[in-house]
Amino acid sequence: MATAEKKYKVIGTRPIRHDGVDKVTGRAKYGADLHLTGMLYGAILRSPHAHARIKSIDTSKAEALPGVRAVVTNADLPQIGSKIADLGEGMFNLQHISRIALACEKVTYKGHAVAAVAADNIHIAQEATALIEVDYEPLPHVMDVREAMRDDAPILHEDVRTEAFASATDEPGDQPTNIAKHFFHEKGNIEEGFSAAHLVLEREFTTATVHQGYIEPHNATALWNPDGQITVWTSTQGTFVVREQLSGLLQEPISKIKVVPMEIGGGFGGKIVAYLPPVAAILSKKSGRPVQLVMDRTEVLEATGPTPGSYMKVKIGVDSEGLITAADAYIAFEAGGFPGSPIPAASMTVFACYEIPNGRVNGYDVCVNKPATKAYRAPGATQAAFAVESVLDEIAEQLNIDPLELRLKNAAVEGTRRVDGVEFARIGMRETVEAIQQSDHWKSEIGDGARHIEGPAHYDDGNKRCGRGFAAGFWFNAGLKSAVTATVRTDGTVALLEGSTDIGGSRAGIAMQLAETLGITAEEVTPTVVDTDSIGYTDVTGGSRVTFATGWAAYEAALDIQRQMVKRAALIWDCNADDVCYEDGRIVGPADKSFTFGELAAQVHKTGEPIIGRGSSDHNTPGGAFAAHIVDVQVDLETGKVEILRFTAAQDVGTAIHPAYVEGQIQGAAVQGIGWALNEEYFFDDAGEMRNATFLDYRIPTCYDVPMIETILVEVPNPGHPYGVRGVGEVPIVPPPAAIANAIYAATGVRMPNLPISPPNLLHALLENK
Amino acid sequence: MPRVFIPPQLRSLTNDLTEVDITGTNVRQVIDALDAKHPGIRSRLCEGDELKPGLTVAIGRRMGTLGLLEKVDENSEVHFLPAIGGG
After folding, report:
1. Domain containing residue A687: CATH number
2. Which of A263, A553, A702, B69 could tie A28 with a disulfide, CB 3.0–4.6 Å?
3. pLDDT at residue B85, rounded to an integer
4. Chain A nearest C-alpha distance from B22 (Å)
């Protein structure tokens, strides 16, 4: 349900996505579908230990196996020093990426890649990995963030010292530590703020390691030609980001590297780091043939980048009316085997929904012997919101204030200064919460409109209890750089080339913005995602940026086409170009002359050079995004199982270019949040091995587990975009865990400060509270 | 004059001042002027002729994209923040 007044012809409609037929018929080409002549198949040997020194690696037996064409270790990669690269959507240490791709000297998590083989077929490659002899010296491992922060914790990296934000590089180092970074934000006077409070609550929380759960595993096919040209085909969120990583890791200039995007089966932030491309590339260099690597599910779970587990302490003080006087957060994230968790973002989003007069945040990035964490949809914000929204729910109850009224009293508005110091521009926090207040869900009884489940589905009955919970959330959204070219075809259609890999229907949204600007239909634009040699630099598909940034580039390309069409019409009509204008898909000149777009396009090749529009963008006004969710749950007191009866997600979406894809982003993220809340966790044994490393046991929600997620699109157009676009893809994952925890409390009277709230965890808590 | 909001972890260099008004028409000039007034700040914010990796700058309510070249005007607020990434 959109709330904005309709003023567009294409924007706001729901055309069938251009890639739809290929996707639903199985014709779309994903990374593992690629077959090249002479291609070899790769397999990776991975560490059986959570923490160990590598004393030696003997690959001779593997190399001698018939059918093996190359074996590589980290020694085959150039040895690079510690170097931070700005990959557009986050800072990455290239040395760490190199050592994640293939371990150097040490393994820091079970499943860490140690060596790789390329062979005539996958079976020979896998057999060969078993012949590689690695002499490990197992080391004590540490799996919990608080234990890793202790002075006597096993140390993962001897060269890591705690770095404060903007710390001096010449400060003397302390002892080696697992605490890689410390972030600190402060506003006002925290002590005075708490002193002025009528009620102060401080609570502790933990969350578990959780994976993005993309269905398609990581893959890469590489060909290192004898002429030095390297081509990599891969499913990635950013072809240019992969190119930058390859250039840094292989020490080859970007001019020698081409990255070709295959269709991508989910990313959510987890397909930005190049785990396989550098390994495939050096295997190809060594063997002289193309090499393909595809992870299996266990490798994906054990050896890519989940989101961190955490320990958090949140303290909030309010006056007797519920106005926040002070807020303090301590957040420690498990970075995994290498530094680099999303603790900076968590530290900046934790209180962002609210006006905080006195605030303080301490955030820590802590190494533990788990896979190195990477981005997962609004990275860091979900964990932080779980803590804050749980405390606010408890405050609302203690003060006997409606939870939505409490949020509205304290809602951030335009001009609110965050704890990190920056003021908000035009935002939609209030509107989003008010949309929930006015929703059918909020106004109805628990159970009304709920999906049917077996038994007395929506009544409190015997051993089942129902409850409703609310939570809000915030995410930044990114702008960054994009480029497109758009060629006018003589049949009146436009071929649009862009560099943003499509992980959520974005090629349709970009095409629609071009079509709207030109006054043609979305079907008359053919979008194609192309390789790094075929389009200008385009930052990663992530950070909820593509519809905003690449859409803006398409808008600029359309304006460029308009200018050229005007000049061409003036040539045809033999008049001054100043007397011609472009209006609503028509080119209008003097004496009632006019062409439709199609009519003029038909004459392009007869009247001059091709008409090609060029557009690029690097705008920094994406606007932040707010989400407000309510959920009705039913708890089985005998089993601890929680059923989601009804779920409504309201979100400030700017202008919904293609409402169905905006709704889809919200629904998908909400479902991921539900899984995060109710079941998903990495379960490690005492040896530091993940024991649920398949989708059978790492249980993500399916369509059978959740109701239709109702969506409310609050359209507060972003003043910083020609069509008012605001990024939508990430923020909807932020509120669900807190909303569900609050609903479970409403149903049972038991607060659950630890995620996941899985049946055994909830049952134990229920029994303890009996 | 542009106003620089001093990150808490750098306030030991500014005698605990949380905000400093400083001259400059871009971030580079602002940092240079700040360093002249409070020595040592430049080396905390910059590496060579660029913002230190892991840092970003916000001018008023918007994030900068040009690093040290980002323009500031008379009424600008300048914030130095950790760089973050999305997913």
Report:
1. 3.30.365.10
2. A263
3. 86
4. 17
Whole-angstrom Cα distance, residue A543 to residue A448? Answer: 36
Q: In chain A, positions 104-163, which contact chain B (CB-CB < 8 Å)?
A: none
Measured at the alpha carbon of residue A345, what is the angle toward residues A318 and A721, in degrees to the nearest 5?
100
Supply the mean pLDDT for chain A. Answer: 95
Domain membership of residue A288 (yes or no) is no
CA distance A203 to chain B (A): 25
Look-up of token digits 């972890």 = B9
Out of A600, A618, A636, pick the residue that ends a domain: A618
pLDDT at position A6 is 55
Q: Pick the residue of B14, B34, B61, B63 with the most A CBs within 10 A to test the interface with A by mutation.
A: B61
**Judgement on whether residues A448 and A483 belong to the same structural domain of the protein:** no
The minimum CA-CA distance between A202 and chain B, rounded to whole Å, is: 23
* Residue B10, domain extent: 3-82
**Pick from B8, B40, B87: which is nearest to A542 by CB?**
B87
CATH number at residue B72: 3.10.20.30
User: Is the domain of A721 the same as that of A639?
Assistant: yes
Q: Using a cut of 0.90, tell me whether the model's pTM lies above it.
A: yes
Could you read off the pLDDT of A450-469 as tens digits, one per residue? 665 554 444 567 789 999 99
Q: Torsions phi, psi of A460, nearest 5?
A: -70, 120
Count of structural domains within chain B = 1
- B10 CB within 8 Å of a chain A CB: yes
What pLDDT, on a 0 to 100 scale, did the predictor assign at position A453?
A: 54
Which chain B residue's Cα is nearest to A268? B87
pLDDT of residue A652: 92
User: Does the CB of B48 have a partner CB in chain A at under 8 Å?
Assistant: no
What is the DSSP-derived secondary structure letter of residue A683?
A: -
- Tokens 């081409």 found at: A258
Q: Give mean pLDDT, residues A710-727.
A: 92
Residue B87 belongs to a domain: no
| Residue A41 tokens, joined | 């198949």
ipTM confidence? 0.96
Residues A212-264 pLDDT 10s: 999 999 999 999 999 999 999 999 999 999 999 999 999 999 999 999 999 99
Residues 541-560 of A with CB under 8 A from B: 542-545
Q: Which of A250, A257, A260, A261 is nearest to A227 (CA)?
A: A257
- Asked if residue A750 and residue A661 are part of one domain, the reply reads yes
Residue A768 in tokens: 């303890």
Does some domain include residue A603?
A: yes
Task: Looking at the structure, tell me whether residues A704 and A746 fall in a common domain.
Answer: yes
DSSP B9: G
Residue of chain B whose alpha carbon sits nearest to that of A416 = B61
Q: String of b and e for B12-30 (b: at least 16 CB within 10 Å)?
A: ebbeeeeebebebebbbeb
Residues of A with Cβ-Cβ distance to B43 under 8 angstroms: 168-170
Strand A179-187 vs strand A163-164: parallel, antiparallel, or unpaired? parallel
Per DSSP, helices labelled H in A519-639 are: 546-573, 597-601
Q: Does B81 touch chain A (CB under 8 A)?
A: yes
B26 pLDDT band, cuts 50/70/90, is: very high
List of chain B residues whose C-beta atoms are within 8 Å of the C-beta of residue A89:
85-86
The CA distance from A405 to A412, in Å, is 13
Could you tell me the pLDDT band of residue A571, with boundaries at 50, 70 and 90? Answer: very high
Cis check for the bond before A756: say yes or no (omega within 30 of 0).
Answer: yes
Q: Could you say which DSSP state residue A525 is in? A: E
CB of A504 less than 8 A from some CB of B: no
What range does the domain containing A693 cover?
A: 429-473+623-770
User: Chain B within 8 Å of A184 (Cβ-Cβ)?
Assistant: yes
Q: Is the same domain home to A515 and A604?
A: yes
pLDDT score at A622: 85
Q: How many domains does chain A have?
A: 2
Say yes or no: A480 contacts chain B, CB-CB below 8 A: yes
What pLDDT does residue A426 have? 87
CB A59 within 8 A of CB A73: yes
